[in-house]
Amino acid sequence: MSQGPRVALFVTCLVDLFRPNVGFAAVKLMQDAGCTVEVPEAQTCCGQPAYNSGDKKDAIAIAKQVIATFEGYDHVVAPSGSCAGMIRKHYPEALADDPAWSARAEALSAKTHELVSFLTDVLKIEKVEAAYDGTVTYHDSCSGLRELGIHGQPRKLLDGVDGLHLRELNDANVCCGFGGTFCVKYPDISNRMVSNKMDEIVATGAETLLAGDMGCLMNMAGKLQREGANVRVRHVAEVLAGMADGPAIGEPEDGSAKP
Amino acid sequence: MSISTTRNFKANAAEQLANETLRGALTKSKGHFTGGRATAVSNMPEFEALRDQARDIKNHTIEHLDFYLEAYEEKVTEAGGQVHWARTAEDARNIVLEICRSVDARAVNKGKSMISEECAINDMLEANGICAVETDLGEYIIQLRGETPSHIIAPAVHLTKGQVEESFRANHTHLDPNRVLEEPPTLLNEARTILREKYFQAEVGITGANLLVAETGSSIIVTNEGNGDLSQLIPKVHIVLASLEKIVPTLEDASTILRVLARSATGQEFSSYTTVSTGPRREGDPDGPEQYHVILLDNGRSDMLGTEFQDMLRCIRCGACMNHCPVYQSVGGHAYGWVYPGPMGSVLSPGLLGVDEAGHLPNASSFCGRCEEVCPVRIPLPKLMRHWREQEFEKHLSPGATRVGLGLWAFFAKRPKLYQLATGLEMRVLGWLGRKRGRFTSLPLAGGWTKYRELPAPQGRTFQSRWKSGERPQAGGAQ
């Protein structure tokens, strides 16, 4: 077993439930980089749905549960800028007035990372061993981009993937319309946003869309498929780990992209 | 106060989303504003530092608001002007009316002012037989159409050139019906010619203020048409309508704010006209009003002091937040249902109208954070919207279904073993159901999602259950 840092995977609820492959890809990327990866059992969700719905009490209860579960590790890594941003930015904010917890929240914040930026910025990985044939485009998920400053990191690693060609997406930094509960609370507005996003994705001519957050990916995949656009959607970790040979998001088990 | 339909936000939004003309107008303006700002910012290496300075100036002033407001009043009085304190919109209306009546005003020229919109000054003037003429081109256009502004700096941004032409032909009936009016410059010239005459007919000129300067007792407006200058210089009486938080300590501070204002708003380095007014015409001055009045409006703002919403009082009304907001760009300003649209409105409107009235607005955000990213005075807009959601939740104003759903979810999220058991089972069922198509077109309880998009099916067993059974990824290079 490797003697590298002991990393806890915060798998995130959407990866856990909908796309376990992303979780395994995250583990593989970190293990290949020499980390010892563990998956603490007492994990559910980061609490963001409660926090953003104004239910601060439940959000804080969940935050404390996450802190207690994860604080013993060298690093905590999530394959999502949104969930990592919740722990890094919002836990300290939510617990700022709680003397017993604020320091613990700050400490966990300092060692929590989004997966791709963890690989490049903490583990200093320059290149991953992976191949992916085709043209991809990349959407910058809002929380990762604006709360954690993730922009160049995924592009840098994708650049080293054999056979992969990245074609930049116009308005890549504009929200896809997911926004957690926003997309079901205001479906009409969310639909306009994801429709605009879809138009830009299709305009790139890329065969595959990548991003770093399952929420955004499910939203964009769901829209592309509803409108019959022939674009496959995957989490960036699946490509970087060389685990993108199975069905893409929303595709049947036999892998056919057709509706 | 001006009438609010923010309670109907969802219906308003649906109506605007169906408006293809609006969509065209917004698409056209969006690139102009966002591109303009981006270029202006990239041309100024010290822009981020200036934003910090602007934020600090506003914070300092707001923390000592009483001191600077009193100092300002003293200076205005010294210069021969008069400050009127308006606690409410009604107070402001009454003061305006009283001043107008004191000079038997029959016509009022108006520079662009959002405070005037907030207080519904035009309606009050009309009701009292006084003709209000908007002199800002955008405001003039929407006045002809009987509309309200849909943007705080570009009031007619929701309209296309063709709609403006239509309104001009319908209203300027004394002009040759066969005249060519297709291009923006011809539209502008026509409006200018008509407005020129009106400048000389009004007894009172009303403007807003982008800034009030405590050091000198001055009010500052920025315009791109010069209409503000004519509105305030020609009539006998100049009324400045401003809210309390427009105050800054010194002219130097004002210049710092101006440097971030135009760049954030339109991408200009400076607006075409920056006009500083201090008191009425002095002896020997070539022009200027005989009377200079400032109406300082509170209307709920001082209640925000000392609360988590105090940061909102920094706002300098540049409009960058709405120019960059994907929600505003989808639904336009009118959907918000009150004077202030976009992210700044979603924070300010609940403060001024109450969260029970305007609660939809802070909810209708995906929290993408672009507004905060571009705000020249670094207002944490998403965070403040979240605070409104917290108040709503605490007051039990959020919809029942949301509360029940959230409560159920939180119950499980706080009990990992139970959560894993329940979700493990659910995902296996969903995964099995969705294995052939890989996605769902409809699913019970997921209507909000599946109305517009497919729901990707889960892969089957959850990650946690697979991990617990000992499944691990293969180590090493590409598989």
Seen as an oligomer or otherwise, the chain set is heterodimer
What is the C-level CATH assignment of the largest domain in chain B?
Alpha Beta
The strands making up the biggest β-sheet of chain A line up spatially as 2-1-3-4
**What ranges of chain B have pLDDT less than 50 throughout 5 or more consecutive residues?**
none
Low-confidence segments of chain A, given as residue ranges, are: none
* Helix residue percentage of chain B: 40-55%
Average pLDDT rating of chain B: 95
- How many angstroms separate the termini of chain A? 44 Å
Strand order of the largest sheet of chain B: 1-10-7-4-2-3
Our estimate of the beta-strand percent of chain B is: 5-15%
Helix count from the secondary structure assignment of chain A: 13
Largest sheet of chain A: 4 strands, parallel
Provide the CATH superfamily of the largest domain in chain B: NagB/RpiA/CoA transferase-like
Q: How many discrete domains of chain B?
A: 3
Task: Characterize the overall form of chain A.
Answer: globular
In terms of DSSP E residues, the strand content of chain A is 5-15%
Largest sheet of chain B: 6 strands, parallel
- State the domain count of chain A: 2
